[in-house]
Sequence to fold (303 residues):
Amino acid sequence: MPLFNEKISCWDDWGRVFQSTTAFRPLVEYILEKENLPVCEITNLTPGTNGVFRVGKYVIKIFAPLESGIDQTPDLKTELFATRRANEMGISSPKLIANGYIDDKYHFAYMITEYIEGAEFSKAVLKMTSGEKVEAAKKLRHITDKMNTPCKAFNQIDVINDTGHYRRWEKFPDNFKTQRLEYIKSMDCKNKVFVHGDLCGDNIIITPGGNLYIIDFADAVLAPLSYEHSLVAVELFDFDSWLIKGYFEGYTPKEITGICFEGLLIHDFGGDIVVNHLGNNEEFQSLEDLHKRLEQKIQNAFF
Fold:
């Protein structure tokens, strides 16, 4: 009898069960015993694409099998590479404890990392004073400066030329989309570095002692530095004045605007970020409209 007994034949099936501690408990316990790790209470963590559970001092991530309709092998390889790189470089991130595969009812890949006790950035920042925001942003910048460095190719993702990265811009006006493609083609993207790619409020943990840890490297890619900084400024900070000043210390509003403009236009999540933080897609008939909106937001953050 298999350890996992739910049916998975499409993505909806996976979405129905991937957070179920009941469905995954036998499989999780087997994996822990296999890796000589203690078995204890299994609880949910912030959901993403894969099954993520806390078990005592550890986090176990179980990747969706092929039967879900999506091949998670690229995400697995990316996350393993990026986590090992972070551990080797001394970047503040959970240590990789184990990884492997289990052939059960389905072929499940898994990885186990240490659990970092703390609060997600998006929740912790709500209780911060202005001074604490500046210090937290400076600590994050120290981490990203260490992380955003040249690196060998580790996946096949091309953030500039991969048309799959255009889908979040599909609902924007035609003129905007045309100008965006022209802008991207004119970019000099030779100086790519390793970027986390999704430094949102859920992927940064602040410990009780005030230290920051980066988690979940599944969206890591090689990209221009603006790819990372734009998401931090717009998505993570939402143009908060004190956070912006701490992270971009020494930068002018014009420089930050340029970084955000370039980074959002090439970011895989760029179209969604614009709509969520800057305005309805129909408000952006041209790139100039986007640049002006960013310029206004950044200027406001400096006053």
